[in-house]
Structures
1.
Amino acid sequence: MNTPGKLKGKVVVVTGAAAGIGRASSLLFAQEGALVAAVDRDPVHNIEVVEEIRNRGGIAEALTADVSSAADVEAAVRQIIERWKRVDILFNNAGIVTGGKVHTLKEEEWDRAFAINVKSTFLFSRAVIPQFLERGGGVILNMASSTALRAAADRALYNATKSAVLSFTKSMALDYAADNIRVNCLCPGTIDTPSLNVRLNANGNGGELRKQFVARQPLHRFGKPEEIAKAALYLVSEDAAFVTGTALQIDGGMAL
Ligand code: NAD
């Protein structure tokens, strides 16, 4: 693997690394010289990503964890620090989409969506920040969505979780700026990932839904996971040394 090295020697944790945006980001970060701790609840696809990185000459470890479990998160961070002595960068990417108008949603769906999309961000940040403080800095990148900035139909719960991530990002950025800890978030539009295709095909009317989703984006196409990975690389690298508290839209104009 050719390592131009924007992240050379950096220990980077990526959650939800086994698929979609997390997978593309893990591959790109490793290509840039990072030691990638790939965290996912899906061990099968996660190890495939790690093997792909290793086959290309990169360095990665797979860790199985449910990001909404404090015990799992603490154990994962402990293992990473035992292995590589530190964490330099945290990418809180894992998330789920829960559809449905409010009157159709179950309480368990509400709790699960907030646990996986929001609480996970708190748990992982809490686990790495003490050693960021000891070591004089660090970087956190959170995964929000274009729908944190504008409404999208049938996604009230999902959109609320992503607005919470955005608000949490800005508050953490302010609280830790003096400690040299940068905290930003990404706001992607609709990105062509395996789980998007599952959602599009779930109601048997995938073609029509696909057209509607494409129409929401003025650039008139879905984004690619690799396009989000490039934005993630920018925000976690030294190129963004003066950037904190930002919600970066990469959404084909969706939030306009
Ligand atoms: P994806 O479903 O393709 O991949 C998500 C990964 O997270 C999977 O590997 C899954 O196993 C893992 N995961 C889910 N819940 C987990 C848990 N509790 N513990 C550990 N791992 C867990 O998703 P994606 O489309 O690549 O999206 C990644 C992130 O980007 C999510 O936060 C999503 O909300 C956000 N996002 C996606 C889009 C899009 O259109 N794809 C748009 C905006 C924001």
2.
Amino acid sequence: MSIEVKNITKHFGTFTALNNVSLRIPDGELVALLGPSGSGKTTLLRIIAGLEEFDPIDGADILFKGVSVIGNRVAERRVGFVFQHYALFRHQRVFDNIAFGLRVRRGANRLPKDEIKRRVMELISLIQLEGMENRYPDQLSGGQRQRVALARALAIEPKFLLLDEPFGALDARVRQNLRRWLRRLHDEIKLTSVFVTHDQEEALELADRVIVMNHGLIEQDGTPFEVFHQPKNAFVMDFLGSVNLFHKRLGVGGIVFDPQHMVGQNPFFVRPHEIDILPDNPDNEGISATVQRIQLAGAIAKIELVDVNEREIFVEMSHEKYQQHRFTIGDAVFAVPQKTVHFDALTEPIA
Ligand code: ATP
């Protein structure tokens, strides 16, 4: 089922949490809302679910499959929720936690006991926790608890799944496994899902589409490839992976590292893997620098340089390339940008 958000604005007092936001999520997509803390991600998710009101402005609407749901209560919207802190019932077993949403049904919607059992066991198998249905939440690992929270959300057969930082409380390894697992699960059940994250790697790896938010606005809405390789503006470029910011010194041929994050100086950006390190400066396009740190653990070599103004320049290269260069800490080198990205002007300094 598709979701459409039209012209949504939300104020908390005088503070604008969402500023005329519109977006469309097609049926079956897994979409990430990505942005820094306070950018409005959770507010948008809560408004979609019906947990939060939005400003009553002409043209503002939330539609599920083309039909406005403004008048519908939360329960009528049939949305499955998973939050960062898996709010499982501590005194209930895994089975009862998952069955909860089905047992509270009344009237014609009430299911026979056998049917509830069948559905719960099916979900337990889906989250790969067979044999653990009689455990209590504190007898499970963090990742297992989060999978139970997901099964509980799925039990009511929601029209969508909304996940707010679902892996936020977990350690890096568990997080990564659960991410892949959720992607596979999504491919299997194809439930339209929106998840909030401030982790760009998580968004790029997991989502079909990434919506980048900042200050209550959508900066870009695109595939992971588009937002990473074709960022629309300086904010998206900076937020999706590390970048080096430079500007060309006016009237002087050489490139200098941006001394003060100058606003409106027609800056350009270079990703760390698009900078070469050379011993000399043949085309006068390099930045004079010194090797400060070399990190060789991991799939790529990471090198930190420092320029004459004590600004750090981050460079990444393959181990093969590093072996050819063979520079060491303290060497005087030149950082030569291979591919630069320009934006008209920065509207604000990038921290
Ligand atoms: P995070 O990643 O930190 O969770 P977020 O992008 O999800 O951030 P929101 O929770 O949507 O951000 O909050 C957006 C802004 O609105 C924040 O500045 C927050 O302080 C403010 N805000 C959220 N809820 C309320 C509220 N009930 N009353 C006042 N301000 C609020």
